[in-house]
Amino acid sequence: MSQPTLSHLTSLLASPPPLKHSWNVGDDMTAMGTETPALLKNVGALSFRALIGLQAALNEWVAARFRDQTQDLDFDHVIDATWAASIDYRYLKLDAMEFPDASGLVDGPIRESKVQSRDVLQQIPLAEFGAVRYVIASANLVKYVLPTAKPFQDWFKAVVSRLQPLSVPPARQ
């Protein structure tokens, strides 16, 4: 992690800025954003294991954003389970990943992050390219809830390009 990104995360945790995003009916779809051909190509070049790890890291960004507003232990467990699944999928108990509806500026995006993790993890045993789309949606969600997206975008670009040569085989095959 680059020093500017680490500094940004540290400041986000130390003195969280006020929430500026909305979370009304339909905002979850707005937050998921769109996927570009370049994003599909770059994220699609990652292995399924790398996709799971990237999803866990994206959840960490959301958790850091809302750390002072909630102590959602389920979200912490989802993050831990996702990291564990990136090591060995057999650590995962997928049927335990059911989440009640939630709304609001904090609970809505957190629930959406949990659901995105579950959706990514459901695609893995099927070797489905859909996992790539869910990870991209999660990245868009992170950008949506952060007060400033630039440090995250720099981090995301660096991580994806670093993981590409290490990912064998890529998810798009």
- What shape does the CA trace take? globular
Number of strands: 0
Which percent range describes the beta-strand content? Answer: under 5%
User: Which whole number gives the mean pLDDT?
Assistant: 85
Q: N-to-C terminal Cα separation, in Å?
A: 29 Å
- Spell the H/E element sequence: HHHHHHHH
- Which regions have little confidence, pLDDT < 50, spanning 5+ residues? none
CA radius of gyration: 15 Å
Tell me the helix content. 55-70%
The largest pleated sheet is described as: none
Helix/sheet category: mainly alpha
Describe this protein with a few key phrases.
173 residues, mainly alpha, 0% strand, globular
Structure description:
The structure is a single chain. The protein is mostly helical. The protein contains eight helices and no strands. Helix 5 runs parallel beside helix 6. The relative contact order is 0.21.
Brief sketch in words of this structure:
The chain contains 8 helices and no strands. The protein has 173 residues and is mainly alpha-helical. The two termini are 29 Å apart.
Summarize the SSE layout with pairings.
Elements: H1 3-14, H2 27-32, H3 37-44, H4 48-66, H5 73-87, H6 107-123, H7 130-145, H8 150-163
Helix pairs in contact: 3-7, 4-5, 4-6, 4-7, 5-6, 6-7
